[in-house]
UniProtKB/TrEMBL annotation, chains A, B, C, D:
Cofactor(s) the record lists: pyridoxal 5'-phosphate
Enzyme nomenclature, EC number: 4.1.2.48
One Pfam family matching this protein: Beta_elim_lyase
Catalytic reaction list: L-allo-threonine = acetaldehyde + glycine; L-threonine = acetaldehyde + glycine
One Gene Ontology term of the molecular function aspect: L-allo-threonine aldolase activity
Protein name listed in UniProt: L-threonine aldolase
Keywords: Lyase, Pyridoxal phosphate
Limits of the Aromatic amino acid beta-eliminating lyase/threonine aldolase domain: 8-295
GO biological process, one term: L-threonine catabolic process
Family according to the record: Belongs to the threonine aldolase family.
InterPro entries: ArAA_b-elim_lyase/Thr_aldolase, Low_specificity_L-TA_bact, PyrdxlP-dep_Trfase, PyrdxlP-dep_Trfase_major, PyrdxlP-dep_Trfase_small
Length: 348, 348, 348, 348
């Protein structure tokens, strides 16, 4: 029996990584002005500008629901449509938050190829209706990495953003696992965002090593107009802002944001390699980020549960394992062994 | 010159108190399930039930804007009116958040006596219009302690809640500084909330020693129906919930919630006593919680600013000093001395 | 070439029927109090109570978008889900109105059988998720007659409402063409609404002979609580209410509501019978109300367009013809002849 | 005893004027395409462009609540503030509609001079706060004529619009009685709207002789972007649009819009002149449009009520009499006589 078998159920089961924690503790060493007038918030904002090699506008909010919903609300009006994949988190797991924050914008789902939106599918949907009785498409939202652990290449994002420019649509990126995508592609954040036409990026912190917090990054200043008011009104302005911003500073300045993502990706890749060739266990999706989706007989999954492993099966019945900055390689190995063993037990 | 002269500008300039921090660090010792399925969240909820001596429903949200706005939205519909004091925070400093969360409920302000709402003023407003062209009054919101540092007695709250029952109104308490009020009145939390008819209390954490977080406490289970969904949709459900809940556990189990409040109150009281009898400096309001509002000649305030003290003058031109759990009594004494000195310099 | 070939494009191309117009003119004979305090509004309300054989609550609003959206908003909160058919008007043709009025409730679409929702499909959807990350199902909305001209039998509605009771869901009926359904089934309005468990019915006026206006009818008084305020706030309270209510009076008291519906149904039935047996033209759906959906070769449709007929092809490419109270049987015959002729020309 | 003594309670007690009715009946002579694709809607739009001597954008909506609320929502975001007079209809009599349509914009009331907003009062309010905790002022809304029957001169509107330009605010005019103001000032509509800097005008129809309907007129095309979608989503797109637009055509083409307004103004002026010099009855406000507000002893008002006159006393206790297009001069005279008589009876 392993010590922490539950830890791969989600990449938000992990705690706060040491670099983020150290920065938070440092920020706690004395009193400081509120609402972002403290020294850490300005430095964290600048750290994002350095990371993205551009004078972007940065807003720190509490969680991903708010980050994505506020960003989408800033990009459209209530009578607009937001195009995304049918399995996008904003469609399936936010309890109507984008609709709430935007006061009624409708999410329009397009079919995906390899779990990713394509320009063809977006264009077909965006141009399917032109009448006033249906929300006017205004924004495209893509998730990087996707809910199923796929990664959009730079060219794929570029192709989508060019279509968006042509159709007058704005491009939002849900980057709850943006760091993992950068790690996968070995790509500078700028190259995977504004340089390929992303208008607004929600950079995920919780899944990257923070205790809480996401950053909304606008690459177009006009789109960020009055966004601070929007955050305040929506209950997303922290009074003791430094406890939201300083951890980001720790994550960015130390390079932990990338190390953490690489580690998670490596664990996923490692697991996937160790279970190759099993007769009745297979990968539902190629492993491109920090997720492994296993197709396996119910009996195999039962054995794993009995051994204490915890995982979700909400997407097509596959068992999902997620790896965060704190995934213990020894435990990943143990999981791999248990899968191999359970699979072989089936065959005999 | 003092070491940290800026610290009395607001009680949200303070950091995280040791008891809250210790609990957060303890919660960070390992990975844990998300969205409140961790051990700390359940314990923190129970700690509130113990503190309030009743089976209340407890929800942990990120900040006071959200706590009050979500609670008010749960108590009314968009076409209802919310009665509060003209200087209530929900009216003056939330950038329209209650209107946003409730989708358009209107805040109706009533005149106050000693900075507090009275049954007479509430009744006059609640019964002034009965036609369909004006939002139907549905909720009364009182702030305990008030923005001006006053405290409602148990009898005062009771009188208001009895009126509310009579008129079919619900009673919400903005308790950003509820702990300070309990400390002032030396009163059990239950005696200052549900036992005197409060339906929903927003218990402030940030001003009581947390880094962030407030608790929404429903004493009537029916009013809490589906409130978890409401929090989720509004971007107020933390994925790593333990980092929001564990600090509450530290605050409540250790008794720090009350010690912190008492300390802030004591500092305010201390300052007010040390500056008594000055010819041109006086208290704008009696000191009942952790705030001191000074009426003083502009020249006196200028001298204080020159000496490095930081304070707001947004309410009637008075200088506001707020004292949190970390206020250093020696620094409070230094402030008192500077005030006395500045005042005397004026006279000569 | 026919005189008014365009008239079957939609059943809202028709004008105001004589009975409704006469009542409106009568109401215009003198000045009268506003906001429903006039004599006609009370009488029209009572006429609905008589028609439905129960003490229902009746609200007159301007159009179907508002009627359905306000009713749905009254039945749920922003974090709830509304179950309906994928081709329901509230999903496909209201530009996000239900989401707007409810401040973010999510429409959840279920598969249909013969264009109609089934208890099995509703139950599968309503019980598919139980977590807080997805809107909690709260309302079922059915359309009677459906967008494709189908009619729910009393037993079918009953089966759905019994499921709703069991699952704690409320039942809304979009009755834009409710009168047509009553005519089809030769059924008293009560028997097709509250007696089979409908909570709220939106009774369509525009498609039944009015110039504008729909009635929202609550059979459960509790659900109608403060609905007048909701209408007012949402811009749906007419100041000169009599011009909205009196036409209803004319429609109901004269029995025109039913005659109009029967006439439309008869024309649709007539057309469908006259084109039976054509080799390449067929009905996409059985004709149960006032709509005829034709599957025909593009060349046939082109011929019809050339002859001046106007119709939509938005549902599966079929040509839709709709018949209102004013459909001229001679023109319907002419249309039938043109279809037959165009079809035969194809074959040769 | 008079025949229709109740008719001066409000200017929305009047029926549909002959010119509007004739146009509606003409539009009812045959079937026509829906949603504004009919011939009348285009002509009515053009009639507005002719009237305003500019290529404005025109939208026909059902009532004033919707017209003003939709226009304001188009001019601001949820976190913005709308500056208006404390007695503005959008503040006092719309049940929170502007807040609902805008999803939470806050109405900020400024003191008035002679019942009208002044640049000084607007500027003081607009610049009183610059922090993120308070809605950012974005729109000024003025009512022409005002609720108290006052009229802004062209210079007064100009001065306000110049301030708006300087502060980056947009200018909305609630023109429920815009026609009356044009009549008072003998001023072309253009001279009282876009030529003096009004961005959006809501031109009132119900009080000008229609049965229902208001027109939202944008003088800046950019501000009207996607406004049709906004109307649709908010339940303000009539399917049989011609019955909303044709009456406008009748009103505008015949010149009735101005005749009706002049008649109402004349009646008010006439009444005010006939009661001059009474010892205990006086005008609360100068009579500049179609309203007369009388200050009189309660006993006098009681006598009037006894004689069957109906009026409101909601503004400062004064008795309000409103005169519409259908006010019968003989009945106005009778009212004047009754007032004179009741007043003299008091003195003796």
């Amino acid at each position: 029996m392993h010590r922490k078998p539950q830890q791969f159920g989600s990449d938000n089961y992990a705690g706060i990584c040491p670099e983020a924690l150290a920065a938070m503790l440092e920020a706690n060493s004395r009193s400081a002005a509120a609402y972002g007038e403290d020294p850490w918030t300005g430095r964290a904002t600048d750290a994002f500008r350095t990371l993205f090699e551009t004078d972007c506008e940065v807003f720190f909010v509490f969680n991903g629901t708010a980050a994505n919903s506020l960003a989408l609300a800033a990009l459209c009006q209530s009578y607009h449509g937001i195009i995304c994949a049918a399995n996008a988190h904003v469609e399936t797991d936010e309890c109507g938050a984008p609709e709430f924050f935007s006061n009624g914008a409708k999410i329009l789902t397009a079919p995906t190829l390899n779990g990713k939106l394509t320009p063809a599918a977006i264009e077909a949907l965006a141009t399917s209706r032109g009448d006033i009785h249906f929300p006017k498409p205004e924004v495209v939202s893509i998730t990087q990495a996707t809910e199923t652990g796929r990664v959009y290449s730079r060219d794929e994002v570029s192709a989508i953003s060019m279509l968006c420019r042509r159709l007058g649509l704005k491009l939002h990126m849900d980057g709850a696992r943006f760091a993992n995508a950068c790690a996968t592609l070995d790509c500078a954040p700028a190259d995977l965002s504004w340089r390929v036409g992303v208008d607004v990026l929600c950079f995920g912190g919780a899944k990257n090593g923070l205790g809480l917090g996401e950053a909304v990054i606008f690459f177009d200043h006009a789109l960020a107009r009055d966004f601070g008011y929007r955050c305040k009104q929506a209950g997303q302005l922290a009074s003791k802002m430094r406890f939201l911003s300083a951890p980001w500073l720790g994550l960015l300045e130390s390079g932990a944001w990338l190390r953490n993502a690489r580690h998670g990706n490596l664990c996923a890749r490692g697991l996937s390699e160790k279970i190759q060739g099993l007769p009745d266990v297979s990968l539902m999706f190629p492993v491109e980020a920090n997720a492994v989706f296993l197709k396996a007989p119910a009996a195999v999954l039962d054995v794993l549960r009995t051994k204490g492993w915890r995982f979700y099966t909400f997407i097509g019945g596959a068992a999902r394992f997620m790896f965060a900055w704190d995934a213990d390689p020894a435990v990943v190995d143990a999981l791999a062994s248990d899968i191999v063993e359970a699979s072989r037990a089936q065959d005999w």
